[in-house]
Design a protein that fits this description.
Helix content: 25-40%
Strand order of the largest sheet: 1-2-3-6-9
Structural class: alpha+beta
Order of helices and strands: HHEEEEEEEEEEE
Number of strands: 11
Radius of gyration: 27 Å
Mean pLDDT: 79
Distance between the termini: 90 Å
Number of helices: 2
Strand content: 35-45%
Length: 161
């Protein structure tokens, strides 16, 4: 009986079994980790909502400025984003998420008394000065996160309300 036990653990005899066990255990851990990451990334998507607040067409109707908000619940502040899209396009919101849109302006409420939209974010007003020039107005108490001077071939001016 002792010879049988020694043979199982002797080099070259029973090691293939233990290697398979270790590799199997490592694969199971990797799969469990991947599943956990997938669950965590999808949980965020279900908690956030995207809402279009306003759309303003340019004078030649070839472009439009769109203000929208992304609300991810109680752990994040209220915010307002601005983007420029082609005039005839619609904002593609799929599963409460925005795809392929880059904001040129982002403000958040900063827990202050600045005027807000119906969705809770700071109020932002847009006025087209010309086909290639925008004026964006917002309350001075809102915290500016992003503020581009030009975007998509448009010059952007900012002022406080």
């Amino acid at each position: 009986m002792e010879d049988l036990i020694l043979m199982q653990f002797a080099p070259g005899k029973g090691m293939a079994f233990w290697k398979k066990c270790v590799i199997g255990l490592m694969l199971m851990c990797a799969l469990a980790f991947a599943a956990l990451l997938a669950l965590m990334s999808n949980a965020d998507d279900r908690l956030c909502g995207t809402y279009v607040v306003d759309e303003v067409l340019s004078p030649n109707r070839k472009s439009k400025a769109v203000s929208y908000q992304i609300d991810c619940g109680a752990t994040t502040g209220f915010n307002t984003h601005m983007a420029i899209l082609p005039g005839g396009s619609t904002l593609e919101i799929e599963d409460r998420k925005l795809w392929g849109v880059t904001s040129f302006f982002v403000v958040e409420s900063n827990n202050d008394p600045a005027p807000r939209t119906q969705y809770g974010g700071p109020k932002v007003t847009v006025r087209w000065i010309s086909d290639a020039r925008l004026e964006v107005s917002h309350d001075a108490r809102a915290r500016v996160i992003r503020k581009d001077a030009s975007f998509a071939g448009m010059d952007i001016e900012y002022r406080y309300e």
